[in-house]
What we know:
With about 150 residues, the chain is of the alpha+beta class.
Amino acid sequence: MVFAVQGRQNLIRPGRKEELHKYITGIITRQGHKLLAIHCMPDHTHILIGLKPSMALSDLVREIKTGSTNFINENRWVTGRFAWQEGFGAFSYSHSQLTDVIQYIRNQEQHHAKKSFRDEYLEFLEKFNVAYDKRYLFQPPRRGLKGLNKFEP
């Protein structure tokens, strides 16, 4: 699954990334799913899981986004309010592809040095033949909200 920070702002600080990974891992584990890979970039997150059929993916994503939003806000990692963008992308892979997908997720910094998140996401939608309306893919960055794009020290 893939989801973005609201307005695609760079709000996930590298120094907090591992702590956020652990928090999200706890949410996934408590829900009975198996985490295979996670990587939070400053403006988006990739997560690969083994999904148990007892829970709808949208319910799990809601739990992850709500829990991690509250965690970030309660710990005051950003000035203002942190939020994930509405919606998410989900892609299915076969067992034989897992090693490549895990490696891809772990190497996000290198990957995004060459390709933006937006371009990458559009490629995924095309590759997987997902019908979409571009008007609803990415919310524009919010303007006029003081301090929303700043990390707390």
